[in-house]
Amino acid sequence: MNGRKVVVLGMMSKVPVAGVVWQTIHYLVGLQRLGYDPYYVEAHARAPGMLMQEGAADDGSARAAAFIGRVMKRFGFDRSWAFHALHADGAFFGLSESAVRRLYRDAALIINLHGATLPLPEHAASGRLVLVETDPVQLQVEIHREQPEALRFLEQHCAWFTFAENYGGEGCRLPFAERFPFRPTRQPVVLDFWSDAGAPRRAFTTIGNWRQDARDIELDGEIYFWSKHHEFEKVLALPGCVNQTLELALSRCDPEDLRRIEAHGWSVRDALEFSTDADRYRDYIQRSAGEFTVAKDQNVRLRTGWFSDRSATYLAAGRPVVTQDTAFGAALPTGEGLFAFTTLDEARVALEEIDRDYARHARAASEISREYFGAERVLGSLLEDLGLEDRRRNLVLVPVSRWPTTLPETTTRAVLAGPLPRAQAHDAVAPEASVVVVTFDNLVFNRLCIESVLEYADSPSFELVVVDNGSTDGTVDYLRALAAEHDTVRPVFNDANAGFARALNQGIDVARGRILVLLNNDTVVAPGWLAGLTRHLEDPGVGLIGPVTNRTEGDAKIDTDYTTGAEFLAAAADRARDWAGKQVEVSRLVMFCAALRRDVVERVGPLDEQFGLGMFEDDDYVLRVRDAGYRVACVQDVLVHHFGQATLGKLAATGEYGELFHANRRRFTEKWGFEWQPHPARRSNGQLALVERIRNVVHETVPLGAAVLVASRGDEELIDFDGRTGLHFPQVENGVYAGHHPADGDEAIAHLEQLRASGAEFLVLPQPALWWLDHYGSFRDHLEQQCALVARDEKACLVFALRGAG
Fold it and tell me: Is the pLDDT at 57 greater than 60, yes or no?
């Protein structure tokens, strides 16, 4: 079983309207942002009548498949859908029959969305089929009557969820079934799809059918109506009572009803003008001032607590909602941004209240959507109820210190206490890709990296080659246990630390894949990362690629603001969607994650092992790949989290890091005949803003003509001040950046005093370097005792005067 695959069974081709499309897409994208690998499947015996041409002889299967394919491609799921045409010849479209059957077998969860799919034997046999009922009442009444068809349908599911959020609650008249304990849920909404709505027009709107008489329900001698026209009749006079324009976008409304509605002051338009197009449907909602609507009589009188998925999108667009009371107030806040009414007068008062302070109620609508309808929150709760929520979601990925990189204690404990990842079924084929990871102690980072690869690298077929360099912290035992459970894991054990380049070469030698991915052990990957990298290597002119990341040197560094595992997965999903297929040719590439084809290795050769424990072997290899005539690229649609300094950072405290850096720098210079230079920084908007803010602080604080040291990491722009002399700290002869951080606090103090004696007057610690004060305790104490803090802007920098408080 694959712990990351989730199948959503839906009905988009049955009801190919925008509301149903958006309902479905919110589930798929929401699951993806939680780190799951979602697939959409339709398997039903209903001819897609709305898509078939009038008088056409075909059965519509191809039209249904084309419609599904267009929607899936529009949202980045073009390789993750299938249509099983049970109404016709049973043909499969999209994914093949064998792929769909493997999908049912391997998925962690199969969601029967709307309950619109009659379970097939392979659905029920999985033991993981879950019902999400979006229109309650009828099924609960059928359970109450013990109707055999309904009971057989429900028995094939392992869990049951309903949009009736007051089911079993106070005042709910819908019979409660102990045998099938439905749990409440609601429509998830991917909020950023609906934000940025712009200025609204004055009309309050809604979208729906006026008359649907086919699904009335009898319960205990009473008839409960399905059609909403019964409820609209109760407020038909409302336009004459309020200042706002009220507009109904309707279908299934006959001319006589239309004349009567308009005679009461309602504006009416044909819903079919836009409701079959997802973007036009969304635009209509976003341009509205808000929603005024009613609910079905069934939900109103039975007090089910049902709430409309369409109303949820109005809230997400920052549009207040006034809707008929179904007892949804038991689960959602009302009275600001969202109003429940029972009578015509209550509806009038709600609209007047919104009119008095529209901006406040628009903000409240947005806040309700964030707190109650955000896809990650809603689906996270559903998955938690099912015991599927990933512990990785809540892990904090921001280190508490660096050199070496140290994670929060809560993160470390959670990772080390977690069980081994579940074994997954794999076809017995040679792997297309080999992921090579080198480990040397650092069990917590090793687990984060390796387990993310096992969970999120699903396609193409892959193996994980782990070369351990003599770990003594439990990593060896972990790798042996992992290999015993996962046939994709192939460990190689060295008795001692053979060095990074040599270990990578060992991994490459035993790897079987055509694609080779060299991955640092202090990384975390996201769903689709391997397939994303592989696609960029289809061009034979590209020899070496790497992803973008939160922490590195040069072109691969991008601005990120995530802090947790869940936020990283969402950021990676957004990146894959927004930057699909894009890459940038680069001259330098830090190989924390690098992918290349085997033919490139055969032509260029192995990594140069003279660089020992590490550093400079990646710059060397990039030059060799370019000299062989290949392009080197940074792909823009794959985001990999990189902690940085997890292994080599341990050498800083002993001074070995600096020694290794300078030794390998000399080796690089001797080999290539020119001096190595730090990677040029890629300027994001956030970085440009930081540089400008630091300059402003320095210009306001430091007098003209002063010499200013900056913990710059070699960034020339950070030492470029008007009328002041900027200097790198630390530095070597001629003021060149040293290329590494001080080994310890004493070394930092000695170097600072040396530069002070040479004329330096101020020290600037930019915001990214504030960790120095935690890591170098004696250096912090020295600054406090011997220098004066003259400027503090923790979003920009700290500035110390080196010649004392005076």
Answer: no
Residue type, 735: G
Name, in order, each residue with C-beta under 8 angstroms of 193's C-beta and a sequence gap of 6 or more.
26, 29, 282, 316
pLDDT digits (tens, 9 = 90+) for 382-414: 998 887 765 556 788 888 877 788 888 888 888
The span from the CA of 30 to the CA of 637, in Å, is 19
User: Which residues touch 385 (CB under 8 Å, ≥6 apart)?
Assistant: 159, 161, 183
Q: Judge contact between 625 and 632, C-beta under 8 A.
A: yes
Residues in contact with 357: Cβ distance below 8 Å, sequence separation at least 6, in sequence order: none
Give yes or no for a contact between 99 and 82, defined as CB atoms under 8 angstroms apart: yes
Nearest alpha-carbon partner for 294 in 362, 357, 350: 350
pLDDT band at residue 685 using 50, 70 and 90 as cut-offs: low
Q: How far apart are CA 766 and CA 100, in angstroms?
A: 53
Handedness of CA 728, 732, 737, 741 (dihedral sign): negative
Between CA 171 and CA 718 the distance in angstroms is 65
Predicted TM-score (pTM) of the model is 0.61
Q: Give φ, ψ of 13 to 5 degrees.
A: -75, -20
The residue length of the chain stands at 806
Nearest to 138 by CA among 233, 215, 208: 215
Q: Is the dihedral of CA 423, 426, 429, 432 positive or negative?
A: negative
The 10s digit of each residue's pLDDT in 410-422 is 888 888 877 777 6
Q: Are 244 and 351 in contact (CB under 8 A)?
A: yes
Contact 393, 570 (CB under 8 A): no
For residue 2, pLDDT over 60 is answered with no
pLDDT value of position 658: 72
Give the HSE-up count for residue 560: Cα atoms under 13 Å, Cβ half-sphere.
27
Across the beta sheet with 183-184, the strand order is 92-94, 81-85, 37-44, 2-9, 107-113, 129-133, 159-162, 183-184
CB neighbour class for 773 (10 Å; exposed up to 12, middle 13-18, buried from 19): middle
- What would you report as the CA-atom Rg of the chain, rounded to the nearest whole angstrom? 31
pLDDT computed for residue 1 by the predictor: 38
Helix/strand/coil for 689: helix
3-state secondary structure 305-371: CCCCHHHHHHHHCCCCEEEECCCHHHCCCCCCCEEEECCHHHHHHHHHHHHHCHHHHHHHHHHHHHH
CA angle 238, 244, 246 (to 5 degrees): 60
Q: Reduced to 3 states, what is the DSSP secondary structure of residue 621?
A: helix
Residue 506 token pair:
């060992």
Cα–Cα distance, 576 to 101 (Å, whole number): 27
Identify which of 456, 528, 390 has the alpha carbon closest to the alpha carbon of residue 34.
390
Q: What is the DSSP letter of 722?
A: T
Q: CA 447 → CA 207, 437, 480, 566, distances in Å?
A: 50, 11, 13, 17
Main-chain phi, psi angles of 534, to 5 degrees: -60, -40
User: Are 393 and 565 in contact, with CB atoms under 8 Å apart?
Assistant: yes
- As given in the structure block, the two tokens for residue 633 are 């690229």
Six-digit token string for 791: 């400027």
**16-48 pLDDT, tens per residue?**
999 999 999 999 999 988 878 899 999 988 777
One-letter amino acid of 311: S
Residues 6+ apart with CB under 8 A from 6: 31, 36, 37, 38, 39, 107, 108, 109, 110, 111
> Nearest 10 degrees: CA dihedral of 15, 21, 22, 27?
110
Choose the weakest-confidence range: 338-347, 547-556, 701-710: 547-556
Question: What are the Cα distances from residue 390, in Å, to 381, 393, 623?
Answer: 11, 6, 41
CA neighbor of 15 nearest in space, from 68, 53, 57, 55: 68
**DSSP-assigned beta bridge partners for residue 47:** none
